[in-house]
């Protein structure tokens, strides 16, 4: 008798996985290696930014009071007492009708409270004249206007991007405390699989899931150990899975999770004593996606069908990895879009359509990326998002508003309602 599996909702499946995620710990690394890591400490302003009042322009630092009453017909003349380039400080305070020539980023000299841009002046033998009055404080970049000392600027659990790196560098974080990165294991199962460089022979196909998963991990900056391909043999596959689990923090297998005679992952989980979190999800593709856990390590049994494999990774594996690293926004961002063409199939299960979104004069439009069955490989290559059609809905028409999940985005969200 074939086992009858009971599908659970996608949101419930995601929750079950996330509930099993164990944090991977922290480490201190050099700032130059920190891009793509998750902050394990908040960024606190160690000092004001800017750390001193400075000029935002190339011009002259003056006392605003000295410019009072200036007009085009009665220009006011200033004597220039010196020059301050960025990185230098003025030697003395300025007095009445005195000015420092000052460059963008240079510290304001004592007594000066306004900056006149070079373009607003006419040069004279001893300085310049100007034709309008300046307010005290005009054209000054104030100490602390960007960040105040002691302020918490970014919270722990945030993914470090180039802007975060700039902030860390500003405060002198030569080293930064981040989450460790887990090491993934990858195993492609299937007696039919050939290596990428092999010529096709009858009945066989090339392994595309292995390289795809490696790239999905690369996109996240996650290192992996590849266990290559394994033929559908129970003993051999069990040995490889066991070894992989010993050597890595979690394991991704592809294929062998359905009810076929050579689908051995369910038997392997049983042999190893792994707890199966689910083996059927009310989604398409990827309904047979199975996730199990053993000794705190997750085993992602992704389907062999390429589109199902891809989708299973994005929906379950990716947020779990990010959560292992303490990322507080581990889910793909969601947007609404106008459907660009009819999609007439009914959706007994939640459907994730590989699609391509673009911003057009009509707003964001998402178009299915061609052949969209679970075994499709071409639409994964063309797509940049997943259209989500909820279960229980009928066909959709061009012009309908749909939700999309953005692939490959650095920006995450804290919650999903799938
Ligand atoms: N009687 C039933 N049959 C099937 C069911 C079901 O519920 N009852 N589910 C179907 C669904 S849905 C899917 S999806 C597949 C899932 O199959 P498996 O995860 O067990 O994967 P395999 O059987 O190993 O392979 C499926 C398919 O994918 C190809 N494949 C496998 N690995 C790779 C790879 N690394 N690169 C490229 N392509 C790969 C494989 O050759 C098969 O064509 O089961 C349905 N059947
Ligand atoms: O798991 Mo299958 O991908 O739903 O077609
Ligand atoms: Mg199968």
TrEMBL record:
CDD domains: MoeA. Its cofactor is Mg(2+). It catalyses: adenylyl-molybdopterin + molybdate = Mo-molybdopterin + AMP + H(+). It is an enzyme of class 2 (transferase). The keyword Metal-binding applies. Its EC number is 2.10.1.1. It holds the Pfam family MoeA_N. Keywords: Magnesium, Metal-binding, Molybdenum, Molybdenum cofactor biosynthesis, Transferase. InterPro entries: MoaB/Mog-like_dom_sf, MoaB/Mog_dom, MoeA-like, MoeA_C_domain_IV, MoeA_C_domain_IV_sf, MoeA_linker/N, MoeA_linker/N_sf. The keyword rRNA processing does not apply. Pathway: Cofactor biosynthesis; molybdopterin biosynthesis. NCBIfam families: Glp_gephyrin, molyb_syn. Belongs to the MoeA family. Catalyzes the insertion of molybdate into adenylated molybdopterin with the concomitant release of AMP. This is Molybdopterin molybdenumtransferase. It comes from Sporosarcina saromensis. The lineage of its organism: Bacteria, Bacillati, Bacillota, Bacilli, Bacillales.
